[in-house]
Write a structure and sequence with these properties.
binds zinc ion; TIM Barrel; 8 helices; alpha/beta; globular; binds D-xylitol-5-phosphate
Length: 224
């Protein structure tokens, strides 16, 4: 499967947000990971629709919107309208996950579901065939710059084995604590959409994107 890099703007310098996104895009990143936090599902508050709408006017990157928001069904249409391409909701945050997935698709977006580090893969039993992407959180959501939780590796591996068994080509995204020195672990386990915040926006953005893409190239020919 194609491997994608999804720089998370949570780690950007907001004074220079546009400039930094352009650098990531020009270096070859296609996805833009946009972390929306509501101060309820997670302790922190980040940004919302007006920010996404302004970015949408300036870039054609694929907007990968990660909603760390309680009862996200209240906002799906508005996030779609301001430019989201993929909308990912947490299974822990939805009362009716099946309905929310349908709601996302009805807006013309790709649907993703996210699992916190201790949430079981069994929560996917009845939706695995319906979603475009599963986001395996590799830190507890809420903040950038945390350490990768090592039990995630086995979870990613089991999820990839499961989709292979079902014959489903589903994207597996990983998010949190991924850096150049440990990204091989999640790639080997079967993840193919790699989120990185501090690993991209700290230091030289262009160099960081190149380095990740160079690592990805080594995994390009693995079995789909
Ligand atoms: C955490 C967010 C992440 C975060 C990742 O709740 O969902 O997307 O920005 O940041 P790093 O790569 O710094 O761990
Ligand atoms: Zn995220």
């Amino acid at each position: 499967m194609k491997i994608h890099l999804a720089p998370s703007i949570l780690a950007a310098d907001f004074w220079q947000l546009g400039k930094q996104i352009t650098l990531a895009e020009e270096a070859g990143a296609r996805y833009l990971h946009i972390d929306v936090m509501d101060g309820d599902f997670v302790p922190s508050i980040s940004f919302g629709m007006p920010v996404i709408a302004s970015l949408r006017k300036r870039t054609n990157m694929l907007f990968d919107v990660h909603l760390m928001v309680s009862d996200p069904e209240r906002y799906i249409e508005r996030f779609a309208a301001c430019g989201a391409d993929i909308i990912t909701v947490h299974v822990e945050a939805c009362r009716h996950v099946d309905r929310v997935i349908q709601q996302i698709k009805a807006c013309g977006c790709k649907a993703g579901v996210a699992l916190n580090p201790v949430t079981s893969l069994h929560t996917l039993d009845y939706i695995i065939g319906m979603v475009d992407m599963v986001l395996v959180m590799t830190v507890n959501p809420g903040f950038g710059g945390q350490e990768y939780i090592k039990t995630s590796t086995e979870k990613i591996r089991r999820l990839r084995a499961w989709t292979d068994e079902l014959g489903i080509k589903m994207d597996i995204q990983v998010d949190g604590g991924i850096r150049k020195d440990n990204v091989h672990v999640v790639l080997e386990a079967g993840a193919n959409v790699i989120v990185s915040g501090t690993g991209i926006f700290t230091g030289n953005i262009t160099r960081n994107v190149y380095d990740y893409l160079e690592i990805f190239a080594k995994y390009r020919n693995r079995k789909a």
